[in-house]
Inverse folding.
């Protein structure tokens, strides 16, 4: 039965490795973070510290929410604030050795899941696109 | 074999119906569109015309790209421009009767797919989350 493949394939085999993942640093000003997000085209990316350990994630929604004042978007706030003030640290993580089935569970509520090693170093991200491609592949085999 | 369910279930059964889908109107100024996106929390939503026919989609990335000037984000442009000037009309669509397998194909490259009837009226959206939940359900049955 093809479904067994979801338990046999590991997260490490399908994740986008860290060197190909756009990210922001925990000390960046929000203006720089928003620029990275707009130029990369991604709605949200991982946030790392100086030693490339995973801190959390940051998205355009959270940044824009911060600057939404009563009458208009207060864009000047972007240069006053830093990523560490609003980074979302309440996120699920997986290890490279986890099964794709564990990945499927986590991706039900998140467009991507960060992959870290036992010391918290950032290894990569598992995306919904990667898992949907595998599901489609299993279907036709 | 559980995989057959992907061909037996229709898009109409799993889509989020139009009345529950946040959207913007084709004539809205970009400032209003960005407000809808930030308040709803969605990165992108469908764009409809006054008769509720589907025109395309619009996301934060496209809006922010428009106002990214050489030195800073030119937020004043948001009140000068309208949704119809930048709406993305090059998007796949499905009918309610299409199979979930057709949905899976389309969702490989898009976080959500718009569902329309034969006259182009907007029926709802099929999301990656809905298909991933169905895949997980099939796995355990
Ligand atoms: N430059 C591009 N080229 C081709 N297709 C593109 C693209 N940018 C976005 N897409 C498509 O849009 C989907 C949603 O992207 P989003 O940026 O909202 O959400 C993304 C983004 O937040 C993050 N992500 C994906 N790849 C990344 C990377 N290389 N670096 C940082 N974050 C990434 O994972 C989420 C889910 O990604 P996923 O691939 O499943 O799904 C992507 C992909 O199907
Ligand atoms: N208010 C909320 N409550 C709970 N979870 C939330 C949420 N907002 C976002 N999420 C989670 O984040 C994912 C990505 O949302 P995003 O807004 O980038 O991308 C969304 C958005 O562009 C659109 N979308 C989803 N529901 C919508 C709705 N009711 N109205 C308009 N657009 C919607 O379809 C995309 C994929 O949605 P999907 O559900 O697969 O995936 C969602 C969902 O898992």
């Amino acid at each position: 039965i093809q479904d067994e493949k979801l338990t046999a394939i590991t997260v490490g085999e399908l994740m986008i490795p860290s060197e190909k993942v756009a990210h922001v640093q925990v000390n960046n000003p929000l203006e720089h973070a928003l620029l990275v997000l707009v130029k990369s085209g991604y709605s949200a990316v991982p946030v790392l510290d100086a030693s490339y350990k995973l801190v959390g994630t940051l998205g355009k929604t959270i940044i824009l929410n911060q600057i939404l004042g009563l009458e208009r978007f207060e864009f000047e706030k972007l240069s006053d604030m830093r990523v560490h003030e609003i980074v979302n640290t309440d996120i699920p993580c997986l290890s490279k050795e986890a099964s794709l089935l564990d990945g499927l569970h986590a991706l039900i509520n998140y467009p991507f899941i960060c992959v870290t090693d036992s010391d918290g170093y950032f290894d990569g991200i598992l995306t919904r696109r990667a898992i949907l491609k595998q599901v489609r592949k299993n279907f036709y085999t």
Helices of chain B lie at 5-8, 11-14, 30-40, 60-66, 77-80, 100-107, 128-140. The radius of gyration of chain B is 17 Å.
